Amino acid sequence: MVDFHALYRRTFGIKEIEESTLLHLLFYVISLSFFVTFYGWVEKSYVSVMTYVQGAHVCPPYFPSCGDFYFLEALPNGYSQSAFYIFLFLTLGYGVYAAYKKDWVSAHQALLIAFTWKIIWGFFLTYGVMGNFDYYDLVLAFVWLFLREKEYFAKLSFVFLYVLASTIKIDGGWIFGNYFNSLFTGAPIFGEGPWLLILTNALIVMQMLGSWLLLSRNALLQQGALVYFMFFHIYSGILVNYRYITVSIPALFVLFFQPKPFVVQGVRKATIAGYLFLLCLLAGQLVGILIPGNQKETLEGNFYGLYMFEANHQCISSAAVYREGKMEPTLMNRESHVANNRCDPYRYWFPLQTLCARDSTVERIVWTFDH
């Protein structure tokens, strides 16, 4: 007979979790972030059956038929979505209770269920809805759930996310300080001015190079980097609100508050999966960078890695739908109203393509996208 309990423990490295206070605390951080995620999704109709029926859904390019798999119905059209998220709430709650009772197998299983749904929802049933904060908790959750040397790769992957985040700032808007100057209110607290050039470039350097100091054996440098990034996240929370700092600040604190010598580990059986995971993160980030042309306008490959909204980009989508027997077209116009509207052409094109495919009376659609 196969001892499935023992097999589960060996497969997912449960003993590592049991022996690490840091991993205990990280579990609570990830669970909190997932709870906040689902709190934001429960009332959204992105994956509701009615959204699919109305042709208002947007699928990822690699899974254009995602709407065929929608099975929930959001209020006021049904209760199934609310009931499903209550199930996830109870699952996360049970996981926290199991962790409190030191039943880390049950806690692991609870988080695995929540993680699986978030992956399905974010990467297969929707397009471009998740933010960078979702990538942060998914990366940490993947390390916690699946990898060996969990504590080591949790720290390394968190620092690596800073490095990846710096690549999206290697752009004229950041390097020349125009990113915040294009906003009506300027940068939070600092407003507008030439000093923004210094601040934005200093951030690029700190994320790309200074973040490695979080792993320094020099306690003064390590704690200095911790203080810098703690203030950075608090400041950024003024602009992006509290969802991002819900995962970033607690994780930063848990991973790096207590200085501990960080020893680089070589490639071996226990670490090869972790290093391959980091390479996958790098590959995803490079997709948008390596695509030829002005990727800031097309946003191709934008959601395979970390990304930012383009504060000085605005757009207008104008579509004229010509139908059989009608001389005048139906006009469908949309435009960006706020700075964090990312003006993704694909997001505007997909519903028009769906309309054209479903409605047999549509002869043609003339679409103009001004960016």
Fold and architecture overview:
The chain is mostly helical. Helix content is 57%, strand content 6%. The chain has 16 helices and three strands. It has helices at residues 4-12, 14-18, 21-41, 49-53, 80-100, 104-125, 132-146, 150-167, 172-175, 178-181, 195-208, 219-240, 242-256, 272-290, 295-298, 345-358, and strands at 316-323, 330-335, 362-370. A three-stranded antiparallel β-sheet has the order 2-1-3, covered by helices on one side. Strand 1 (316-323) and strand 2 form a beta hairpin. The protein starts with a helix and ends with a strand. 28% of the residues are buried. The mean pLDDT is 88.
Low-confidence stretches: none
Largest sheet: 3 strands, antiparallel
Provide the structure class. mainly alpha
| Proportion of residues in β-strands | 5-15%
The coarse silhouette is globular
Strand order of the largest sheet: 2-1-3
From N to C, what is the helix and strand string? Answer: HHHHHHHHHHHHHHHEEHE
The tally of strands reads 3
Mean pLDDT level: 88
Q: C-alpha Rg, in Å?
A: 23 Å
Distance from N terminus to C terminus (CA atoms, Å) equals 63 Å
Report helical residue fraction: 55-70%
Number of helices: 16
Summarize, please:
The chain has 371 residues and is mostly helical. It contains 16 helices and three strands.
List the helices and strands and how they pair.
Blueprint: H1 4-12, H2 14-18, H3 21-41, H4 49-53, H5 80-100, H6 104-125, H7 132-146, H8 150-167, H9 172-175, H10 178-181, H11 195-208, H12 219-240, H13 242-256, H14 272-290, H15 295-298, E1 316-323, E2 330-335, H16 345-358, E3 362-370
Antiparallel strand pairs: 1-2, 1-3
Helix pairs in contact: 3-5, 3-7, 3-13, 5-6, 6-7, 7-8, 7-13, 8-11, 8-14, 12-13
